[in-house]
Amino acid sequence: MQDLSTLGRRVRHFRTRAGLTLDQLGRELDVAPSQLSLIENGRREPRLTLLTALAARLGVTVADLLDDAPPSPRAALEIALERAQQGAAYRELGLPALRPSRGMGDDVLRTLVGLHRELDRRARQAIATPEEARRANTRQRLRMEEVDNHVPEIEALASEDVAAVGHAGGALTHRTVSLMAARLGLSIVHADDLPHSARCVLDLESGRIYIPPASIPGGHGLRSLALQAMAHMRLGHGEPQDYADFLRQRQDASYYAAACLMPEAAAVPFLEAAKKSRDIAIEDFRDAFGVTHEAAALRFTNLATAHLGIRLHFLRAAGDGALVRAYENDALPLPVDVTGSAEGQILCRHWSARRAFARTTRTTEYFQYTDTPVGTFFEATQTGTTEAEEFSITLGVPYEESRWFRGRETQNRAVSRCPDLSCCRRPDADSARRWGGRAWASARVHAHIFSPLPQGTYPGVDDRELYEFLESHAAAPEE
Ligand SMILES: [Zn+2]
């Protein structure tokens, strides 16, 4: 059912097209003209009998009246203005509601509506300042720590969807992902001209998921991208209301994708067997399900505490030691700023996540025991490189849990006193005396610090690029 405002404008549109005044129409239908006026102004809902009579007299169908499209470009502007004035951002200003009179030109209306749009855009943008983004991200991390990074509802949904296409176990193929998409009425289309700001686009109208061409290097993440787009539908996501909402949706979508790629029903027995033979290794889990090391390590955090009773931590660090992403429910003392945010902070240089970069041979995981002020942790780190920088993925557990893991016999050991600054941040007294006031350096700007700024409806995605992309593809026949 459309809103009363549009309905009223459609009635008025068809009445004037029929050359009738309110008085004439009222007389013919035996309705007071004032009642018709209230309906046309969207202030009263007509009964179905009146709607039927109106349609008959105006030579249209009831469906024509109930259509939710504005009857003319002018009406579209009037409706947009009305809606904007009903929004919270405008009402906060305490300005009077402006009713578009007949004498108000289209250009005036267009200007007002344009200003409202910009006002709204700026209000949304202000919500996601880097600081607010960091706070929202921290709240989300803490929320997931409370539930041991395990979401039974999404696990159930993913299990159901994977089982519905007859997937029995092992790596989920592109073919299976396509079948899953088809079941939702979607088709996967590879596009080599995706908007620069988007990694994947879902066209709800045509039911297409656009992802990059399969041939690009690192294409193994494509199944995950397509699954994340499907998650948007399966989890009933709408346009995010604010940055926190955006983060939650994104995290839930990633969770769904991971739960499809490494289904609980197959992954848990695999990990239980590894635990039984005291040989848990993320590299094995990764290879068994054909995913990236990071995806496998993150998925392990979903299942380890809930199913194996193991508390743990996950770290993704950049080559310069900055923390890109973290999860812990084992009390590892993550470096945090005053807002409680860990992303972008520099990790202790004695931790496995950073020591692993110093190795020359990096084909296998690096293992290390790290003594910290809150206890000893066993950590396994895999390093890698993107075009832009090197990174490391670390999965760690408290000392007593190391007995379940491959690499526990390692002789690598380090002592960390972080967050005490004297551990690895503050220079020792001798070198401070030697160099204090005798050197100068220019800082490298941290490009990866967690501070995405929104440009459109979806934070970080340029709406214009997105809509141009959709326009150009909607016209093309489906493959
Ligand atoms: Zn340190």
Strands in their spatial order, largest beta sheet: 5-4-8-7-6-9
Q: What ligands are attached or bound here?
A: zinc ion
Question: What is the chain-wise order of helices and strands?
Answer: HHHHHHHHHHHEEEHHHHHEEHEEEEHH
- Tell me the distance between the termini: 35 Å
- Counted by DSSP, the helix tally is 19
SSE diagram, text form:
Elements: H1 4-17, H2 22-29, H3 33-40, H4 48-58, H5 62-66, H6 73-86, H7 88-91, H8 106-127, H9 130-146, H10 152-164, H11 174-183, E1 187-190, E2 201-203, E3 208-211, H12 222-234, H13 243-261, H14 264-276, H15 282-289, H16 293-308, E4 313-318, E5 323-328, H17 352-355, E6 366-372, E7 375-385, E8 390-398, E9 413-415, H18 429-435, H19 463-474
Parallel strand pairs: 1-3, 6-9
Antiparallel strand pairs: 2-3, 4-5, 4-8, 6-7, 7-8
Helix pairs in contact: 2-3, 6-8, 9-13, 10-13, 12-13, 14-16, 15-16
Bound molecules: zinc ion.
Question: Mind explaining what this structure looks like?
Answer:
It is a single chain. The protein is of the alpha+beta class and 479 residues long. 46% of the residues lie in helices and 11% in strands. The protein is built from 19 helices and 9 strands. It has helices at residues 4-17, 22-29, 33-40, 48-58, 62-66, 73-86, 88-91, 106-127, 130-146, 152-164, 174-183, 222-234, 243-261, 264-276, 282-289, 293-308, 352-355, 429-435, 463-474; strands spanning 187-190, 201-203, 208-211, 313-318, 323-328, 366-372, 375-385, 390-398, 413-415. The strands form 2 sheets. The chain has a 6-stranded mixed sheet. A 3-stranded mixed sheet has the order 1-3-2. Strand 6 and strand 7 (375-385) form a beta hairpin. Helix 9 (130-146) packs across helix 13 (243-261). The longest helix has 22 residues, at 106-127. The model is unreliable at 447-454 (pLDDT under 50). Zinc ion binds next to loops.
